[in-house]
From TrEMBL, chain A:
Listed InterPro entries: AAA+_ATPase, ABC_Ni/Peptide_Import, ABC_transporter-like_ATP-bd, P-loop_NTPase
UniProt GO molecular function: ATP binding; ATP hydrolysis activity
GO CC, one annotated term: plasma membrane
UniProt domain ABC transporter: residue ranges: 7-255
Subcellular location: Cell inner membrane
Keywords: ATP-binding, Cell membrane, Membrane, Nucleotide-binding, Transport
Protein name per Swiss-Prot or TrEMBL: Peptide/nickel transport system ATP-binding protein
GO annotation terms (biological process): transmembrane transport
A Pfam family the protein falls into: ABC_tran
Organism: Xaviernesmea oryzae
Membrane topology according to the record: Peripheral membrane protein
Automatic annotation (TrEMBL), chain B:
Entry similarity comment: Belongs to the ABC transporter superfamily.
Keyword annotations: ATP-binding, Nucleotide-binding, Transport
Keyword Signal included in the entry's annotation: no
CDD domains linked: ABC_NikE_OppD_transporters
InterPro entries per record: AAA+_ATPase, ABC_transp_ATP-bind, ABC_transporter-like_ATP-bd, ABC_transporter-like_CS, P-loop_NTPase
Lineage start: Bacteria, Pseudomonadati, Pseudomonadota, Alphaproteobacteria, Hyphomicrobiales
Name of one Pfam family that matches: ABC_tran
Superkingdom field: Bacteria
PANTHER family cross-referenced by the UniProt entry: D,D-DIPEPTIDE TRANSPORT ATP-BINDING PROTEIN DDPF-RELATED, TRANSPORT ATP-BINDING PROTEIN
Record protein name field: ABC transporter
Biological source species: Xaviernesmea oryzae
Endoplasmic reticulum keyword on record: no
Gene Ontology molecular function, alphabetical: ATP binding; ATP hydrolysis activity
Length: 276, 280
């Protein structure tokens, strides 16, 4: 398959008082078009740094080196800040664990969604507004026209998460980078947000690089999985194959460590099931 | 299951209600609404529900950290408010979610762990050292850890320290609020195992606040489900998880993603909200 994103030999160092911390130690992976790759690992495994490196969004004190970084046929490894800014929010959308990070608290939801479009796509305000309303509706925000004039704090956690997904979709990205986007949500909300991501992925043909530590989430949305430990990818493969027949002891241990719920009968959600 | 009427009731809430005043509104917010619930001695009871369901508010009332607006709360048959703080603390102890936030970073572990002991009565330094060494062994940490500071520890080790501190005065009840949710999965399993062992070894009763169904089935005998401040379901873990009665419990259980691609994907499909039922 022709890869949309192809990262090779990625290394990330942190300069600390005590010296250099080698946090990511030569990681290579690809994400195909419309594919979902889950980077799985525990805290400190380097999974978030790996994802942030793609967009050159590393925290202060961290530096990245990579042998190869190809996105949609372009070599992005030597992109400067201007070119990176062009990429972020346009061809590559981002969603985070905490939607408050993605929004400016002093601006309305509508302004912020429109701004992404105005900056990257066209200066046409009417088009920007129409697209924002359409996308809010698409991600399941009711009364989107009213929500446009509201501030982030006026939305519930679940709705803010949906609005952030809408913002990430404003410029028809080819790739979404999602860093633990459902970790802070309740399980019922988590299933809804994941099912929403899956559905927008299918309708828009977007690839997703998904960072998580939750193997249930992996089982639900991944096509392929890359297990990270101490800055290295220790196992990678098709999600069904890796979860059913893990080769690495570490992957086996991760799967074994998930507390098991006793055999739940598959249940149907009631028609009115929803959360706000 | 046969109900033994002679069992001692460790914790009891009777029609407990807690309201909070809301700025700019006349009507208070009812966080816990007429909840009646018992924790029997030796039992491990899970309190589950989404954030905002009132489970933590109820747990805080049971710890004596929050007074009910109406209703009764009892510990071993006695109204909580009639206990002195020290007496109550000698019976009921909390274990919190985040061991990074609950341990004083400027103190050595020996001082952190022995704090409740020293607060309760005058103890010699030798006794402090001996008791801390003993409790560190119980939570499976080396005795040498007594000299360390919290930042030198991993998340799982910190949670062991938090448990050691809760146990140093030999309480009879632990109220654990999401005891593993800040930890990595492999560490979660170890902490759950430790809590299971300690319960048997020390004859403890647990009230476990969690939204993690895996924790419920690993650690608890009985589960009480809260939704919008009300207790909506209460029964043995096996029964509730296999055949939930309340609609909300069903939704909660059907949203837990199993580590099985086919099952997990089926659940996502079920969770999809068609446009006409979207949240408002």
């Amino acid at each position: 398959m022709d890869a949309l994103l192809d990262i090779g030999g990625l290394e990330v160092d942190f300069s600390l008082k005590e010296g250099l911390l080698h946090a990511v130690k030569g990681v290579s992976f690809t994400v195909g078009r419309s594919e979902t790759l889950c980077l799985v690992g525990e805290s400190g495994s380097g999974k978030s740094l790996t994802a942030l490196s793609v967009l050159d969004l590393l925290p202060a004190g961290a530096t990245r080196r990579m042998e190869r970084a190809i996105f949609a046929g372009q070599d992005i490894s030597r992109y400067g800040e201007r070119q990176m800014q062009d990429l972020r929010g346009r061809a590559i959308g981002m969603i985070f664990q905490d939607p408050t990070m993605a929004f400016n608290p002093t601006m309305t939801i509508g302004r912020q969604l429109e701004e992404v479009y105005l900056r990257h796509v066209s200066r046409d305000r009417r088009k920007a507004r129409a697209r924002a309303i359409g996308l809010l509706d698409r991600v399941g925000v009711t009364r989107p026209e009213t929500r446009m004039d509201e501030y982030p704090h006026q939305l519930s956690g679940g709705l803010r998460q949906r609005a952030m997904i809408a913002m990430a979709l404003m410029c028809e990205p080819q790739l979404l980078i999602a860093d633990e986007p459902t970790t802070a949500l309740d399980v019922t909300m988590q299933a809804q947000v994941l099912s929403l991501l899956k559905s927008v992925q299918e309708s828009f043909g977007i690839a997703i690089l998904f960072i998580t530590h939750d193997l249930g989430v992996v089982a639900a949305i991944a096509d392929r999985i890359a297990v990270m430990k101490s800055g290295l990818i220790v196992e990678t493969g098709d999600v069904r194959q890796v979860l059913a027949n893990p080769r690495e002891a570490y992957t086996k241990a991760l799967i074994a460590a998930v507390p098991k719920a006793p055999g739940l009968a598959p249940l149907h959600l009631p028609e009115t099931a929803h959360a706000g | 299951m046969l109900v033994n009427t002679a069992r001692t009731i460790a914790l009891e809430a009777a029609m407990a209600t807690r309201e909070f005043a809301v700025k700019g509104r006349k009507e208070p917010f009812i966080a816990v609404n007429e909840v009646s619930l018992r924790l029997y001695e030796g039992e491990s009871l899970a309190l589950v529900g989404e954030s905002g369901s009132g489970k933590t508010t109820l747990a805080r009332m049971m710890l004596g950290l929050l007074e009910p607006t109406r209703g009764d709360l009892q510990v071993f048959g006695r109204e909580i408010s009639t206990y002195s703080r020290l007496h109550l603390a000698s019976l009921v102890q909390p274990v919190f979610q985040d061991p990074y936030a609950s341990l004083n970073p400027r103190k050595r572990l020996v001082d952190i762990i022995s704090m409740p002991l020293r607060a309760a009565r005058k103890v010699s330094r030798d006794e402090v050292e001996a008791r801390v060494e003993d409790i560190l062994r119980k939570v499976e940490l080396p005795a040498s850890f007594a000299r360390r500071f919290p930042h030198e520890l991993s998340g799982g080790q910190r949670q062991r320290v938090a448990i050691a501190r809760a146990l140093i005065n030999e309480p009879r009840i632990l109220v654990c609020d999401e005891p593993t949710s800040a930890l990595d999965v492999s560490v979660q399993a170890q902490i759950l195992e430790l809590l299971k062992q300690l319960r048997v070894e020390l004859g403890l009763s647990y009230l476990v606040v969690t939204h993690n169904i895996g924790v419920v089935s690993e650690l608890c005998d009985r589960v009480a489900v809260m939704y919008h401040g009300k207790l909506v379901e209460d029964g043995p873990v096996g029964n509730v998880l296999r055949a939930p009665v309340h609609d909300y419990t069903r939704r909660l259980l059907s949203a837990v993603l199993p580590v099985d691609p086919d099952q997990a994907r089926a659940l996502l499909l079920a969770a999809f909200i068609p446009p006409e039922n979207r949240p408002s």
